[in-house]
Design goal:
Heme binds at residue 335. This protein is an alpha+beta fold. It has a domain at 56-149 and 183-355: Catalase core domain (Catalase HpII,  Chain A, domain 1). It is built from twelve helices and ten strands. It has helices at residues 33-43, 138-145, 156-164, 170-177, 224-233, 237-247, 302-307, 326-342, 421-427, 432-445, 451-464, 466-479; strands at residues 56-65, 83-92, 107-115, 118-125, 191-192, 197-200, 206-215, 253-262, 288-297, 320-321. Strands 1, 2, 3, 4, 5, 6, 7, 8, 9 and 10 form a ten-stranded antiparallel β-sheet that branches. The chain is globular and about 80 Å long. The structure holds NADPH dihydro-nicotinamide-adenine-dinucleotide phosphate and protoporphyrin IX containing FE.
Length: 480
């Protein structure tokens, strides 16, 4: 049945085609509120785009747990047989909201699980590591990925200047420039929680954990030339494919795995297990399969459900905790702060962000507060109070203490770290053809970069493997 068109105040509209004018040829009247309302709303349609990961594609689905890791965590969403509704948003990092989908870049892999004990967000990437290990460098790093202030162009010189001065970036740079740096679709890539998180169990024991989401669609990648050909035809290739595949009933799936490290092992590993530029080798900490993630429903309204989605590593639930990873610690602050700026004070009350469990808190008032008082009782607007029905803390969900020690100082995060061993292990996995594409992708990305910066970067590649440095130098020379 046709619905009656109204103003936002609910009053019926008789004519949505013709403005109210003085005579057929005359000017419009100030009293045409319906015209003013349309123009005013249009002026407010845009919100700030995400400062990073602005271009994205998302869908809803389900996490099903088939394995049994109950001895490691009390998290209800991770118990055998649990099924949890979820949202995924994939993204590129550097491009703006209108950027082309098939660009070489790291892909975001952000997940929100609507558990019965609150939202649990894993805001990861399609890579298990990151460019930096100290959050102090994040704004500087991102500035090198965004536009130059004078030219308003992206600057390969800035990128390679920064990377060549930051050897900890080698691992991530190698993945980015390898085949996996340009997946054909968001469905044909893995996702990684990347950071080390922790599990805690009913006995109060803590375990360190890494999360992996392995594509069941198989890895598939484009070369730079293939990516450019697609962008020439469509800039929205990921949106078209992800939306179309789910609409066609062909639901993409990922096998969910965890790597578990006993708490005390963290002092014994040859690498710092809380360093985001490192993986935990599979032979030391074998992945344990725990379930399947499936995407099976498209958003009905992209803006409301994908653009307004607010993911944050601070969203954990009982049984899941943080780790000393410096990068994770900074992200625990950064995301909710970004959401309050981008979406507003009450962003968590928006339907896509709203937990699917009872929510009670004592935050009050604020812009656009449409949920009223959340404390459980009219007279309870402070705490502690003597009102039985009001919301109270629950000590049964207290997390075991996180062991931390050390003198406060600005420790040199580049001291005592092997930045070359793990990139070398990756390099050694590549066959000759993959290596050749790695060299040529790097050379292509170095177009216009001054020779001294190129050479400084090649000296880092030399330390990963002499073939790596030589291969890149030869590919750069071939492009000259
Ligand atoms: P393994 O041989 O046990 O694992 C190798 C891993 O490398 C597999 O997970 C594989 O992913 C992945 N891989 C294969 N090709 C690429 C590529 N082009 N880009 C990124 N990853 C790729 O060895 P280790 O566990 O000792 O790790 C060796 C190296 O593999 C690491 O230094 C790291 O660079 C990379 N890696 C390791 C991961 C880990 O958690 N240990 C996770 C991902 C990468 P898949 O299973 O999907 O084929
Ligand atoms: C988005 C900050 C590192 C993955 C964002 C946003 C900010 C941010 C402010 C925009 C949020 C929004 O407006 O909704 C930071 C900081 C980091 C950091 C300060 C380091 C100190 C990382 C790392 C990863 C990551 C290491 C992955 C392992 C993502 C993803 C998104 C995102 C996937 C997009 C989320 C979405 O789809 O909405 N980041 N980030 N970030 N970040 Fe980070």
């Amino acid at each position: 049945m046709t619905k009656r068109l109204t103003t936002t105040g609910g009053a019926p509209i008789a004519d949505n085609q013709n403005s109210l004018t003085a005579g057929a040829r005359g000017p419009v009247l100030m009293q045409d509120y319906q015209l003013i309302e349309k123009l005013a709303h249009q002026n407010r349609e845009r919100i700030p785009e995400r400062t990073v990961h602005a271009k994205g594609w998302g869908a809803f689905g389900t996490l099903k747990i088939t394995g049994d890791i109950s001895k490691y965590t009390i998290a209800k969403a991770l118990q055998p047989g649990a099924q949890t509704p979820m949202l995924a948003r994939f993204s590129t990092v550097a491009g703006e909201q209108g950027a082309a989908d098939h660009e070489r870049d790291v892909r975001g892999f952000a997940l929100k699980f609507y558990t019965e004990e609150g939202n649990w967000d894993l805001v990861g990437n399609n890579t298990p590591v990151f460019f930096i290990r100290d959050p102090y460098k994040f704004p500087d790093f991102i500035h090198t990925q965004k536009r130059h202030p004078a030219t308003n162009l992206r600057s390969p010189t800035a990128m390679w200047d920064f990377w060549s001065l930051s050897p900890e970036s080698l691992h991530q740079v190698t993945i980015l420039m390898s085949d996996r740096g340009l997946p054909t679709t968001p469905m044909n890539m893995n996702g990684y929680g990347s950071h080390t998180f922790s599990f805690w169990n009913a006995d109060g024991e803590r375990f360190w954990v890494k999360f992996h989401f392995k594509t069941q669609q198989g890895h598939a990648h484009y070369t730079n030339a293939e990516g450019e050909a697609i962008i020439g035809k469509t800039r929205e290739g990921y949106q078209e494919t992800l939306y179309g595949t789910i609409e066609g009933g062909d639901f993409p799936r990922w096998t969910v795995q965890v790597q578990i490290m006993p708490e005390a092992d963290a002092d014994k590993t040859s690498y710092n297990p809380f360093d985001l530029t490192k993986v935990w080798p599979h032979d030391e900490y074998p992945p344990i399969e725990i379930g399947v993630m499936e995407l099976n429903r498209n958003a009905a309204n992209y803006f409301a459900e994908i653009e307004q989605a607010a993911f944050s590593p601070s969203n954990v639930v009982p049984g899941i905790g943080f780790s000393p990873d410096k990068m994770l610690q900074a992200r625990i602050f950064s995301y909710a702060d970004a959401h309050r700026y981008r979406l507003g004070t009450h962003y968590e009350a928006l339907p896509v962000n709203q937990p699917k469990c009872p929510v009670h808190h004592y935050h009050k008032d604020g812009n656009m507060n449409f949920m009223g008082q959340m404390t459980g009782h009219r007279d309870a607007y402070y705490e502690p109070n003597s009102i039985a029905e009001s919301a109270k803390q629950d000590p049964s969900v207290a997390e075991p203490p996180l062991k931390i020690s050390g003198d406060a100082d600005r420790y040199n995060h580049r001291d005592g770290n092997d930045d070359f061993g793990q990139p070398r292990a990756l390099f050694n996995l590549f066959d000759d053809a993959q290596k050749a594409r790695l060299y040529s992708n790097i050379a292509a990305a170095m177009g216009g970069v001054p020779a001294d910066i190129v050479e400084r970067q090649c000296k880092l590649f030399d330390q990963v493997h002499p073939d790596y440095g030589k291969g890149v130098r030869d590919a750069v020379a071939a492009n000259a």
